[in-house]
Design a protein that fits this description.
By secondary structure, the protein is α/β, with parallel strands linked by helices. The chain has helices spanning 16-25, 39-44, 100-114, 123-138, 151-164, 182-193, 204-211, 217-238, 251-258, 291-300, 305-308, 328-347, 400-413; strands spanning 5-10, 29-34, 48-54, 60-61, 64-65, 79-82, 92-93, 142-146, 168-174, 197-202, 242-246, 281-283, 356-360, 366-370, 373-386, 394-395, 417-422. The protein folds into three domains: 5-114, 3-Layer(aba) Sandwich (Rossmann fold); 123-308, HUPs (Rossmann fold, 3-Layer(aba) Sandwich), CATH 3.40.50.620; 322-422, GMP Synthetase, Chain A, domain 3 (2-Layer Sandwich). It binds xanthosine-5'-monophosphate. Residues 268-270, 312, 314-316, 356, 390, 427, 431-433 line the site of xanthosine-5'-monophosphate. It comes from Longicatena caecimuris.
Length: 435
């Protein structure tokens, strides 16, 4: 690794990631470590140029005051402590200014004047470093990757293809709950354009069979998750000579689960969950990146915009948006309506603005009229939300003409649907998904 690094020691500040991101935006690499990092661990980190002790209002954890060890000051690195009065530290900056400009000035002074960092953190260097590291780790062995088509797994795939080409085996499982055109685009981009070693498994019918008559949301999730891992394992066991499993783990996954003082963040299970007994070693080349950096990496590797800026999509896919027991009829309705919503959001320029938007089809019908006759059909619910961390969310106030256009198209083009509703509920009390 060639990049200079600023180490952030976490004393329970909720601002750790913001700080790390601000430093990286200056072109300098930064990582967060627990406050009680040992002398040996700290000494082992490559290219450290300085340390920031980041103590926030909750540096009292479980009634106990926490502090860094004295050795932190003995390595000879410049040290800055923020928002936290440390008895052992002379150079205390008592209050971390809330003014962005002021903070940035303090940060720049520390990073460039005191620590003498160079601005060598960028995607070109990152990719070059990772390609080298991956080759060193993997040698002539094979790597397996569950390629869902999501941003993270797609970027991992592109990076590994660059590093080891056909030694990467991608498995794309189409569980039949993907959005319209999604599996096709995975095949098009990775098999046809990037010439990847891609195994495409269509198990739509198998999943629909397993989900038949299952109405309980949690049971549906369990079936989808378990079945996905089974399919993936079956494929993995057919292959020979695989030693590594690649995963799209990114930095927030590590920070949120890894630090002692970080508050527990609700964790969602991805259907790409790790089959533990397969005995593979892990390759996780994005483990240092924030989401926007993952996207920048994807663009740098030449992935298409639609893939890189893909909105979040739950692992269980349309299974959580086709409420109650899934039927082909309603799954088709939710998929077609979703495709219309996405197209019209794109046309209205809302796709880059709104965090997540999708359609839901509940498992009840209502009376309507079609061609002067009574019809008894399903409603489609539209949902469009904005959020920072998915813990709370507000709805997007879509202009009427856009809503009316979407409604008109869905009513004309989607079979078995006679009503369209817009969900105005924020989270809380609603969740983002309906399930
Ligand atoms: P809720 O509905 O809990 O959703 O407000 C919050 C966010 O999480 C997404 N979501 C998932 N993402 N695997 C995922 O990777 C899942 O199982 C899953 N379930 C929900 C949801 O789309 C929303 O963005």
């Amino acid at each position: 690794m060639k990049q200079d690094m600023i180490v952030i020691l976490d004393l329970g500040s909720s601002e750790n990631t913001r700080l790390a991101r601000e430093i990286r935006e200056l072109g300098v690499y930064s990582e967060i470590y627990p406050h009680d990092i040992t002398k040996e661990e700290l000494a082992k980190l490559p290219n450290v140029k300085g340390i920031i002790i980041n103590g926030g209002p909750n540096h009292i954890v479980d009634g106990e005051r926490i502090d860094v060890d004295a050795h932190v000051y003995e390595h000879g690195y410049p040290v800055m402590a923020v928002a936290h009065a440390l008895a052992t530290c002379e150079d205390v900056l008592n209050a971390w200014s809330e003014d962005k400009e002021e903070r940035l000035a303090v940060l720049k002074k520390f990073v460039f004047d005191d620590c003498k960092c160079e601005t060598n953190w960028n995607m070109k260097n990152f990719i070059a470093d990772q390609v080298e590291l991956i080759r060193e780790q993997v040698k002539d062995k094979k790597v397996l990757l569950a390629l869902s088509g999501g941003v993270d797994s797609s970027v991992v795939a592109a990076l590994l293809i660059k590093a080891i080409g056909k030694q990467l085996v991608c498995v794309h499982v189409n569980h039949g709950l993907m959005r319209k055109g999604e599996s096709e685009s995975v095949v098009e981009v990775f098999k046809n354009q990037l010439d990847a070693n891609l195994i495409y498994v269509d198990v739509s019918e198998r999943f629909l069979g397993k989900l038949e008559n299952v109405a309980d949301p949690e049971k549906k999730r369990k079936i989808i998750g378990t079945e996905f891992i089974r399919v993936f394992e079956e494929e993995a066991r057919k292959l020979e000579g695989i030693d590594y499993l690649a995963q799209g783990t990114i930095y927030p996954d590590i920070v949120e689960s890894g630090t002692k003082t970080a508050k527990m963040v609700k964790s969602h299970h991805n259907v790409g969950g790790l089959p533990e007994d397969l005995g593979f070693a892990l390759v996780e080349p994005l483990r240092q990146l924030f989401k926007d950096e993952v996207r920048a990496c994807g663009l740098e590797l030449g992935l298409p915009d639609e893939m890189v800026f893909r909105q979040p999509f739950p692992g269980p896919g349309l299974g959580v948006r086709c409420l109650g027991a899934i039927t082909k009829e309603r799954l088709e309705a939710v998929r077609e309506a979703d495709a219309i919503l996405r197209e019209e959001f794109h046309n209205a320029g809302l796709d880059k603005k709104v965090w997540q938007y999708f359609t839901v089809v509940p498992d009840f019908k209502s009376v309507g009229v079609r061609d002067n006759a009574r019809c008894f059909e399903y409603p489609v619910i539209l949902r469009a939300v904005n959020t920072v961390d998915a813990m709370t969310a507000t709805i997007e106030q879509i202009d009427w003409p856009v809503l009316l256009k979407i409604t008109d198209r869905i009513l004309k083009e989607v079979k078995n649907v006679n009503r369209v509703c817009y969900d105005l509920s924020p989270k809380p009390t609603a969740t983002i998904e309906w399930e």
